[in-house]
């Protein structure tokens, strides 16, 4: 805080307490905040819901207006909260101090220049809208594809290197590339706003949600704990994919081309499960086919998730949830399809917005989203300012913890989604762990690097001209994936990932990956499970449910180590449970890979094309031989007839 800032604050304290005849006590102020903040948060959330479930110019304008009102309110509350915090004559309890500190921490709402505030809201709208409306026309005659479901399905199912590459590049041309200038302006405006509060930059503000000065070091250490496992998974997948696509599309640097991993961002590899399944004749746990066979509907998928939570002592979804949620993509309007959960800050109004498809992955995403809703419903009696996860990673981890239990073969069999087989042996077990690793282990470096990139951008270390280059430096270095086509400075590939235009921090997903295995282990211990960790299904166990709920009840009323301790007895994030869970797979992969693992830190110079020269010559040679043989046969036939 500058001296001028201090002087103004001191004067305001003086004025406020000397002349405000109807002076509010801190308790009265907090009660008023509760009433007013609920109303304003609800109208803001309604406006946001409208714009995301129906992207129109009017709805976007209404959202900008609601955002400005929210900021104005936040600024007024911030000023008052600071007066209480800075007045040494007022006795505040530790809890009141925590609440007031949070009320004063208003982020980008601190911007007092209304034009800038408005511009900032508009830029966010525009980036989100470019992303949500983007379409790729692969062939002039064909229908153009949106990300969801078109391109996503194509990335899942096509094995044609050229088509995959065109879809991969097309998506980046139509989304990220079109918002680079908007993003550059967004960075400047965001930084300027939070600097008013004394933060160094927007990344510094985002990190403050973890209430520790060592977040960057902490996540770096956790990443190192898991890196060997990722490296082994990467090597195995690379070898198996070479057998599918031919080694010629793989650069000699050891990277995997980013477009063949079954996902637009190579962050989730579950869709290439069939190609990399270690034991081909043994069962795996993708239940998509079984769900289709049994005629699963979206509603039934949500009910399946609801039932698991209920078995642990959580409530069912509310009537408002079923009435107001958007569970499928509407046909008549543009929407933001990326799944999200909503606490509307009003009685029992909790919602999910999702363009659900009937498949295994979406069933797990439903558990993820319902985890958010259950968290929100569990802490609903807390003051509004505490109605958040203990840290953002906690919010992301709840549903995924449940999904670990749901996906055990035992549970899937119990709910009739997996055929009961006679034998469950070590090979089936490795198949199962592989499928789980393609989901979570594969995701670790991506979830780690997205904010490494954004923190560096917000800090000013990465300038607009090198946005894309630094992005790919990180992708190549941490994920070991490389672009299938040449990238240039005018490309903006980070913007092709939802959370970048949507202004959603990403390190939360990395933190969540670590935490969910800690939570899972704690729930299994509470349930008295003594088998290998990855076999544990805590379905309907009241002790596991009670443990989880008692942690969630705290919301963000206490620093997160307190919440973690409540559930696990530990105050630190620790990747050991994750490592323990995947131990049998790690041993298997090490044996299979031998010395064949790793990649160079730098990206390869040039992406190998889908078909190489040798292959092209082979095709030409085969075609020539075939047509010659055909001509000879025809000639012989004609001679024989004459
Ligand atoms: O964005 C999400 C959720 C909503 S919080 C669907 N996830 C990340 C992503 O899609 O990139 C869940 C996993 C990671
Ligand atoms: Zn989430």
TrEMBL record:
Binds 1 zinc ion per subunit. The active site is at 369 (proton acceptor 2), 369 (proton acceptor 1), 499 (proton donor 1), 499 (proton donor 2). It catalyses: Release of a C-terminal dipeptide, oligopeptide-|-Xaa-Yaa, when Xaa is not Pro, and Yaa is neither Asp nor Glu. Thus, conversion of angiotensin I to angiotensin II, with increase in vasoconstrictor activity, but no action on angiotensin II. InterPro entries: Peptidase_M2. It is an enzyme of class 3 (hydrolase). Chloride binds at residues 210, 508. Belongs to the peptidase M2 family. This is Angiotensin-converting enzyme.
């Amino acid at each position: 805080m500058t001296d001028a800032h201090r002087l103004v604050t001191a004067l305001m304290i003086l004025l406020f307490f000397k002349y405000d005849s109807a002076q509010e006590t801190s308790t009265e102020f907090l009660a008023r905040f509760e009433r007013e903040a609920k109303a304003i948060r609800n109208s803001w959330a309604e406006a946001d819901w409208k714009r995301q479930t129906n992207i129109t110019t009017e709805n976007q304008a209404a959202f900008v207006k609601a955002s400005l009102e929210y900021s104005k309110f936040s600024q007024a509350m911030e000023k008052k909260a600071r007066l209480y915090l800075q007045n040494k004559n007022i006795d505040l309890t530790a809890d009141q101090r925590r609440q007031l500190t949070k009320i004063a921490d208003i982020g980008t709402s601190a911007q007092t220049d209304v034009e800038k505030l408005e511009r900032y809201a508009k830029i966010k709208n525009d980036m989100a809208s470019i992303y949500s409306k983007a379409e790729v026309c692969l062939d002039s005659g064909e229908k153009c594809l949106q990300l969801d479901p078109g391109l996503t399905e194509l990335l899942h199912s096509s094995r044609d290197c050229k088509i995959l590459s065109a879809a991969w590049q097309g998506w980046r041309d139509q989304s990220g590339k079109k918002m680079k200038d908007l993003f550059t302006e967004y960075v400047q405006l965001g930084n300027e706003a939070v600097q008013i509060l004394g933060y160094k930059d927007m990344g510094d503000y985002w990190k403050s949600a973890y209430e520790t000065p060592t977040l960057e070091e902490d996540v770096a250490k956790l990443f190192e704990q898991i890196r060997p496992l990722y490296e082994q998974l990467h090597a195995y997948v690379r070898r198996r994919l070479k057998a599918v696509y031919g080694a010629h599309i793989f650069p000699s640097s050891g990277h995997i081309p980013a477009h063949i991993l079954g996902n637009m961002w190579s962050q989730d590899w579950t869709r290439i499960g069939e190609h990399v399944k270690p034991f081909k004749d043994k069962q795996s746990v993708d239940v998509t086919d079984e769900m289709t066979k049994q005629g699963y509907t979206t509603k039934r998928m949500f009910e399946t998730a609801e039932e698991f939570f209920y078995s642990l002592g959580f409530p069912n979804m509310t009537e408002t949830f079923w009435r107001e949620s958007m569970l499928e993509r509407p046909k008549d309007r543009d929407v933001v399809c990326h799944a999200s959960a909503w606490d509307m800050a009003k009685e029992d109004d909790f919602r999910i917005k999702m363009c659900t498809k009937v498949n295994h992955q979406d069933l797990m995403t439903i558990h993820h989203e319902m985890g958010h809703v259950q968290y929100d419903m569990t802490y609903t009696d807390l003051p509004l300012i505490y109605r958040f996860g203990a840290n953002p990673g906690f919010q992301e981890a709840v549903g995924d913890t449940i999904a670990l239990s749901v996906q055990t073969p035992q549970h899937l069999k119990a709910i009739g989604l997996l055929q009961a087989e006679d034998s469950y042996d070590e090979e089936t077990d490795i198949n199962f762990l592989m499928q789980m690793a393609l989901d979570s282990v594969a995701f670790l470096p991506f979830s780690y690097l997205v904010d490494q990139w954004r923190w560096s951008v917000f800090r000013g270390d990465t300038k607009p001209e090198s946005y894309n280059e630094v992005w790919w430096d990180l992708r190549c270095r941490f994920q070991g994936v490389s672009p299938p086509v040449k990238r240039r400075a005018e490309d903006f590939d980070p913007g092709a990932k939802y959370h970048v235009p949507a202004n959603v921090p990403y390190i939360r997903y990395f933190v969540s990956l670590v935490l969910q295995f800690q939570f899972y282990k704690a729930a299994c211990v509470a349930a008295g499970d003594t088998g290998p960790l990855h076999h544990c299904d805590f379905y309907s166990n009241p002790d596991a449910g009670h443990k989880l709920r008692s942690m969630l009840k705290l919301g963000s009323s206490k620093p997160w180590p307190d919440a973690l301790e409540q559930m696990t007895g530990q105050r630190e994030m620790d990747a050991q449970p994750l490592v323990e869970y995947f131990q049998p797979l790690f041993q298997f992969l090490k044996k299979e890979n031998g010395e064949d693992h790793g990649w160079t830190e730098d990206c390869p110079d040039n992406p190998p094309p889908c078909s190489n020269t040798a292959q092209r010559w082979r095709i030409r040679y085969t075609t020539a031989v075939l047509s010659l043989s055909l001509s000879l046969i025809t000639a012989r036939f004609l001679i024989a007839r004459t």
